[in-house]
Amino acid sequence: MKGLCSMRVIFLGLPGAGKGTQAAAITEDFKIPHIATGDMFRAASAANTALGEQVRKYLESGLLVPDDVTISVVKARLQQADAASGFLLDGFPRTKPQAQTLDEILSELGRPVTQVLYLEVRRDELLRRLTGRRVCSGCGASYHVVFNPPRLEGVCDRCGGPLTQRKDDQPEAVAVRLKENFERTQDLVKFYEGKGLLIRIDGEQPIGHVYDAIRQALRGASV
Ligand code: ADP
Ligand code: AMP
Predict the structure, then answer these.
(1) Does the pLDDT at position 1 exceed 80?
(2) Which CATH superfamily is 8-218 part of?
(3) pTM for the full predicted model
């Protein structure tokens, strides 16, 4: 499909909106890297790297990692060769300074963002999704005990790895995460709306319908 390989897309949405679920499918379809800051931080934390030590307390409590740390991780990732012909950012930016710095980085590289897809989901549905989420310890794939169960309970369909519950999907951290992200997400919606890049997607539809809406939005914007 013409133009799709140079997609530079942001998925915006509160925790639990379905960004990771949709990003896994879309990046596979379009052969672009899936750049998810949450996944990068969790991997660093699990591997006990210096970055992991630095971010662990934020991840576990649900607070945002400071902007300077987050931006430097993304900046380095965007400079890798595989991001040259497109990428999907999932969970970044989450603050206005992150969005403004991203703009600067990408305009220096001559590769501005092409679309920002905002997955809209109400709070009560987010709570249902986050508390029932299970993730694969092997490949990070996301499931839900009711809405998107694996074929075999507790086992990842994709890689056979064991499914676990994220520490920050416990009720206390979920409340912190929604509070941390609510107003900031609204600010980012306005920021990208002002640039004419925002596409709203009804994220409360079943997974397959959200996927179809995203495909249609990306197709519409790329031809
Ligand atoms: P995010 O990456 O935005 O935090 P996820 O993609 O991990 O969100 O989805 C959060 C939870 O909601 C997961 O358990 C996932 O299986 C489930 N989920 C995702 N999309 C939908 C949907 N459209 N309907 C119902 N459940 C969904
Ligand atoms: P996620 O997997 O997107 O739900 O992110 C998990 C956690 O990683 C968040 O609760 C934050 O602690 C941290 N994180 C991920 N992305 C960012 C970001 N863009 N800015 C700050 N912290 C982030």
Answers:
(1) no
(2) P-loop containing nucleotide triphosphate hydrolases (3.40.50.300)
(3) 0.95
Indicate the length of the chain as a whole number.
Answer: 223
Which of 8, 19, 42, 134 is flagged as catalytic? 19
State the average pLDDT over residues 107-127: 96
Q: Looking at ligand 1, which residue's alpha carbon is closest to its atom 10?
A: 16
Give the DSSP letter string of 196-219: T-EEEEETTS-HHHHHHHHHHHHH
Question: What is the best residue among 64, 92, 142, 165 to mutate for testing ligand 1's pocket, by most ligand atoms within 8 Å of CB?
Answer: 142
Distance CA 162, CA 197 (A): 38
Q: Is 70 in the pocket of ligand 1 (CB under 6 A)?
A: no
Q: Quick check: is 19 catalytic?
A: yes
Q: Classify residue 29 by its DSSP letter.
A: H
Answer yes or no: are the C-beta atoms of 117 and 11 closer than 8 Å: yes
User: Could you tell me if 201 and 217 are in contact, meaning their C-beta atoms sit under 8 angstroms apart?
Assistant: yes
Record the tokens describing residue 156, joined without a space.
Answer: 């990842």
**Number of Cβ within a 10 Å radius of residue 104:** 11
CA 62 – CA 172 distance, rounded (Å): 9
Encode pLDDT of 90-100 as tens digits: 999 999 999 99
Where do the structural domains in the chain lie, given as residue ranges?
8-218
